[in-house]
Protein: tRNA-specific 2-thiouridylase MnmA
Organism: Herbaspirillum frisingense
Amino acid sequence: MGKKRVVIGMSGGVDSSVSAWLLKEQGYEVIGLFMKNWEDDDDSEYCSTREDWIDAVSVADVVGVDIEAVNFASEYKDRVFAEFLREYQAGRTPNPDVLCNAEIKFKAFLDHAMKLGADLIATGHYARVRQNPAGNFELLKALDASKDQSYFLHRLNQEQLSRTVFPLGEIHKTEVRRIAEQLQLPNAKKKDSTGICFIGERPFREFLNRYLSYKPGPIKTASGETVGEHVGLSFYTLGQRKGIGIGGLKAHQNADGHSDAWYVARKDVENNTLYIVQGHDHPWLLSPTLSAGQISWVAGNAPDKEALSAKTRYRQADVPCGFNAGSGQFSLHFDTPQWAVTPGQSAVLYDGDVCLGGGIIETGAVAG
């Protein structure tokens, strides 16, 4: 029997580049696939597709794998971007990376890889897959906790996980950089991309302006006092502190003479009103419970444990929670109220290192 064929998504970044090399070292036949997902303004200063493609080709050359480019821009627009805009228009704050993984990297890409005769697909994500004694596939956190990306992968199902390998799951980012330098990869020192996949590093408000209709409206405090005007609810996120546009607003001073910062706390879409509150721990920013819909379970069914842990945003430690499954949705209850629980973001559940799945936050009840 010949070598197993793995098709790996190569983005031109250091993580997927080292992943390709590791797979080759492990004895797989490796084919690189470069995905082009965005082409509305490819010549702009913010979109680095051309540069990334050159990097990916140079790396493939050093590692000794074939690479081809595939264009998923129309699938991306239909399945990810349209949903992204709908969510923003509705006043929520979506997470496009979660959608992109579910609809492009582990669907359109997986389908294309299978046509190329792949046995497996691979990406440079920091996560792990294992098969448990019952034969089910589990999604686990990466060993490098500071880089773990299981949060973004929580919508993957049994079929997808059974065909996926994550070569970086067991190693630390520092080791990835070390390997890249040792191999003298042309992108060894390339910075990690931090922008939303299709927007790159461009100014976000200016980008959304091109696609969304919006209208200004009042900014009010918790007591109902109008203190300014917002430029459109889509452009604000719960917990936001900078760029609210209330520069002239005098802050109420505390007893010690200090004044607390103002935060975005609520969006009233019906009345086109943005509410702000003063102080990081204002009750309007704290949620003891949340409900989530559009749910997806890695095992194919809801967990049967009531005590689990959850993340309500990516850069956050897991927090213990009570879990109740409903029909098509679930609710979580936290001992410690969670800060700025944001509709549109993902609530992702864990049992230790095992990522169980999650859903899109619909509401976070506030403490007061």
Notes: The two ends are 65 Å apart (CA to CA). The chain has three domains: 5-204, 215-280, 284-365. Residues 96-115 form the longest helix (20 residues).
